[in-house]
Structures are given as structure tokens and as C-alpha cells.
Batch of 3 targets.
Target 1
Amino acid sequence: MYKNILVPTDGTKLSFSAVAEAAKLARHFGSKLVLFFAAQHPNLSPVSEGFSAPGRSEEREHAVKAMKAEAETILASAATSVNLEGVRVDRQFTVSDHPYEAIIDAAKMFQCEVIVMGSHGRSGVSAVLLGNVTNKVLAHSTIPVLVVK
């Protein structure tokens, strides 16, 4: 039924619960898991914003290396958070200011038939203030979403 399952992760225990549920589905259907992390664009020093100072390119390179290292650490943690024996796993990440859009785009790009992700279950003002990524994916995705609490 599912050939590819996208599992967005942010390195939290809740997202690891989603990995565990996705792994069960993957074993049952013989699916591949695509573990996915959407890194935030690097915050560069506002002092050099708009300037092409020599240090600016070094600062950007350092930020990109740090982002890649963070993504690799989070994806590796997700992959080792549960027993994935017998499950094909692919690790992907991108840089985005809007994680929910990156998640939906990744699901399309990797031809995933379902997105499995965690939710804290916040509602009301706290959900609005925290900008719940899961709610945004639910609202905008045309791909089915399985929410794990």
C-alpha cells in the first residue's frame, strides 16, 4: 500500500515516537522510510547584513557546515531511536524558513504516499503562538498524514 513513508523529525522524543510507528508500517507494507529534517536558514550577524564583507562568506560557510552537522546528528538519532532492522531507510534534509512547506515538498519529491509525524496536541492560543508545524501540514497537504501523539 505504501512504497515510501516520510517521517519528519526534529530530534525530540515525540518525533522518535512517529519514527517507531512509521517503522511498524514500513515492516508491514515493505515500505522505505524517508527520515526528513527541515533545518532553519542560518542566522547571520545583522552587522554585516547587506554587505559583501570578506568575513561574510566565511560566516555563511560556517553556518552551512553547522546546519549540515545538526541535520546529520538529528537524522542519525532518529534512525537509532528505534529498531529499524529490515526497514530500508533514507535520510534527507533541506533548509527552509517554513518547515511545513518543506515537509510537504519532500513528500512529493520522494513520492511518499503518507507522512507520519508527531504532535504535542496543543490547541488554542498555545498552538497559534508556537506555530504548530503538524497542524500546518494537516491543513495544506494533499498527501495523507498520520499524526502520532
Target 2
Amino acid sequence: MKKILCVCAMLGLGTLAVAGPTIKMLNDSTPAYSMQILEDGFAGYSSGTVLSTFCLEYHETFSPGHSYYATLGTDAISGGMDWAGGIYGQGPLKPAFGGDPLDERTAFLFTRFIEGDSRFTDQNKLQNAIHYIEAEFSNPRLIGQKNSYVLLAEQAVAEGGEWYGMGIGNVRVATLWTSLSNGIYSGYAQDQLVMVSPVPAPGAVLLAGVGSLLVGWLNRRKSL
């Protein structure tokens, strides 16, 4: 998720060149939001790819049409509110400082949405569920944001559930920054959910290569 700096050669000397922004946010009217990849290879995608995303943080915002530097990780840059491990109504309310690990329930919901699961088509409801799970509602009166999507996620991660033991899968946190100088990011904007493109296993790559060679050899034999 750290911004990759391109190393280029100039007059025989290795010079560090600061690359441009990583992503561009295309809309902020309603979820799911649209993120365009600007840096080839970010999250495993080619430049120009447009992804669906949801916000992790409730109080932070991004600007539509603006480009950002982005880093990939498994934590939000700062926490929401800690209700005894994210369970509302249990334990004291206190701000959570430092990295806030992505919840497996959020990963389940986002993954199923990206997969086109018909159970999760209400995007505003899904965004509220994510904010609830990630303990982003500091006002106790907003506890009512717990909805049926949260309940389905809780069932999914429970023992015997469809997401039991899956952790966060291929879901990651894309942290958006406005500036990058001397390898240091600044101007934190927002944390967005992204689904990273899975890298093929070495065995699968080898098998595909062998298959291609075999097809080529057979074609050459036919031409003889």
C-alpha cells in the first residue's frame, strides 16, 4: 500500500523520481463510490481500472474528481470509537487511537457486494452497516444503525457460518493522502475499502505456461 517510487536512470546515475497520484475518486454523492486506478499495479490492477469502494471513516471525506496518493493496508489510519471490541452498549465509550484493524464482518459484506450477492443490493444500508461494524458512530443515539446486514455478517463469521475463519480475505484499506514529499505522506483524507486483485499462485502460472508451450508445439507439428 505504500506508494512505490520509480527509479530511473539519468546520465548513468540512479535518480529517485516521485510518481504521480495513485488513484482518483470519481464521485461522493452516494455509495458505492468509484475509484479509478492511476498507478499501474496498485492493488493488482492496471491503470484506468475503476473500482467500487465504500468509506470506512464516518467523519472524514474525500473530494470528487480529485486525485490522491494511496497506500494499502489492513488498518484504518485512525480508529472510530471503541465499544468493548466494537460491541455497542457494552463497556465504556472511548476514542480509539492508532491503527484500527479492518473487521472481518466488513470484509464479508464488501466481498459479497463486489461478487454481486443479491442479499446486499442496498448500498446506503451497506454503508451504514460498515460504519456500525467499524464503530464509527460516536453518538449512542445512532446505535439504531445496526441493521439486517450487520446481523447477516455476524452470522457469517460465527462458527459454522459461510465466512467462518476467512478473516479479511482479499479486502484491504486504501488510505488516501493529498501529498507525498521525500517518501512521507501527509494530508490524510479518508480510508476506502478495496478488493485487491488476487495474484495467481506460482503453480497456476507454471501450468498456464506449460499449456501455452504445448499448444504452440502442437500447432508447429500440424504445420509441418
Target 3
Amino acid sequence: MENKIILLVEDNPDDETLTLRALEKNNILNEVVVAHDGVEALDYLFGEGGYAGRDTSVMPEVVLLDLKLPKLDGLEVLRRIRADRRTKLLPVVILTTSKEECDLIESYSLGANSYISKPVRFVQFGEAVQRLGLYWLVLNIAPPKVRAA
């Protein structure tokens, strides 16, 4: 699983810590890049803002995307990911506390690969993260990387 980057887009410090701890506890030792809002996530993906000059040929293996984000919400981030040919096929897992049917429908309509409602208890969350890591970093065959024009 080495060299496979995970982009975690999470604004809640407690949920960020919980996710990072669950990854570590389940021996998912991949590099995790954390973006704390939607704008920062897009800046990372497209090599803009604070990430200007980043090698955008190196993309995350999976994006774990919260929906309720400052500056730009997760649905808009997903919309922009799917609108750009460089990231159109990038696996995006919605990882959110929202159980609202409209968020679920909109996420899948915009091209989310999976939608997971965050469990409240750490044990449940750890199990969910372990399965996420196994599937997206080990079992899943990612689409080929799109080269910059």
C-alpha cells in the first residue's frame, strides 16, 4: 500500500484525529494529505494556491470527502472533481455524518464512488476505516492516470 496517497478532506479536528488514528491502528500507513476545507482540497488536486508547483501527476489513490465543509462544500468539490478530465475518474468516497437522503442522492448523482455515514463509536469507525483501506488501497484497481495536456 506504500506510495498510495489518501486525501482526507475534513474540517472537524476531532474527526480528523479519529480518522488518522483509525488508519494508523489498522496499519494503513499511507501518506495522508489533509485539506481542511473545499478550496484547500481543490488547490491540492489542481496544484494551485498553497499547493502551486505540486506535481499534479501524482494524485491520491482515493479522496475521503466530508460534505459539510467551510468555503466550498463537499458536493461542490465533487462537482469540480468530476468536471475536470484530470480528476474525473478519481475515486471519491463521501465520509460524512449526514444521513440526509438528499445528500446521498446528490452525491451519487455527481459521481461519488461510495457514501459512508460516519459511525459515532470509535470501534465501529475503526472497522469502517479498515474496510475502506483494504478495498480502496489493496483490492480496487484504480483507473489509469490522466496525463496533463
